[in-house]
Amino acid sequence: LTQGHGTARPFKELLDTTAKKHGFSLGQQASGFGPSDHASFCGKKVPVLFVWTGEHPQYHRPTDTADLIEYQGLRRIVDFSEDVIASLSRMPK
């Protein structure tokens, strides 16, 4: 799931292209407001991108333990995010 592609013009195309490269079907929300620290930046009109896997029954509970981490999926998300960040770093302002 991504949030914030509507906060800067190139974000939607960048996410779509990178998702295709990594074989992802992304849930996308144009708004940058969401359940993390990025929302305060969005509130100040700073472009944001937020990538996460969504909520699950253990989310933010004591039962949300390390054994629930899907490491292969985590690696895919890290690789996807790394490609997005690298592409952003090469863009003109």
Write the layout of secondary structure elements.
Layout: E1 2-3, H1 11-22, E2 28-29, H2 38-43, E3 50-51, H3 71-90
Parallel strand pairs: 1-2
Antiparallel strand pairs: 1-3
Helix pairs in contact: 1-3
Mean pLDDT across residues: 92
What's the overall geometry? globular
Distance between the termini: 25 Å
| Rounded Rg | 14 Å
Percentage of helical residues?
40-55%
Order of helices and strands: EHEHEH
Structural class: mainly alpha
Largest sheet: 3 strands, mixed
**Largest sheet strand order:** 2-1-3
Total strands: the figure is: 3
Query: What share of the residues does DSSP label as strand, in percent?
Result: 5-15%
Low-confidence stretches: none
Q: Number of DSSP helices? A: 3
Describe the structure.
The chain is mainly α and 93 residues long. The protein is 41% helix and 6% strand. The protein has 3 helices and 3 strands. A 3-stranded mixed beta sheet has the order 2-1-3, with no helix packed on it. Helix 1 links the parallel strand 1 and strand 2 (28-29). Helix 1 (11-22) crosses helix 3. The two termini are 25 Å apart. 14% of the residues are buried. The model has no long low-confidence stretch (mean pLDDT 92).
Task: State the gist of this model.
41% of the residues lie in helices and 6% in strands.
Main features:
three-stranded mixed β-sheet; 93 residues; 3 helices; mainly alpha; single chain
